[in-house]
Amino acid sequence: VQLQASGGGLAQAGDSLRLSCTTSGRTFMGWFRQAPGKEQEFVAAISRSGTNTYYTDSVKGRFTISRDTAKNTVYLQMNSLKPEDMAVYYCATTRRIGSDLYHYTEASRYDYWGQGTLVTVSS
What we know:
The chain is mainly beta. The chain is 0% helix and 46% strand. The chain contains no helices and eleven strands. It has strands at residues 3-6, 9-12, 17-23, 29-34, 41-46, 53-55, 63-68, 73-78, 87-93, 112-113, 117-122. The strands form two sheets. Strands 2, 4, 5, 6, 9, 10 and 11 form a seven-stranded mixed sheet that branches.
């Protein structure tokens, strides 16, 4: 399974960016991020069907995860960006075929990772 993340870049506070992650299959997908000097953290996830979505509290109402099954692509629409959103964003997936994933906030639950895309937010 290969994941290809893209869409990062430089934004100002309040701006929007959309990240994309192209995958070779249709499985439960997650986005994580890691800011300089900080631990990796869960951001959002989407079930295999796209029916269920999950977010960490700090991005609820600002970020939206979605998927286009025809394109095997998962998106992370990031609105109202804040300086604290600045990080390298990684998409990840699992080899498990279930629609949902228990403990989806834990990085150890994911088996495949994209290369990361940098999001820089200036104040």
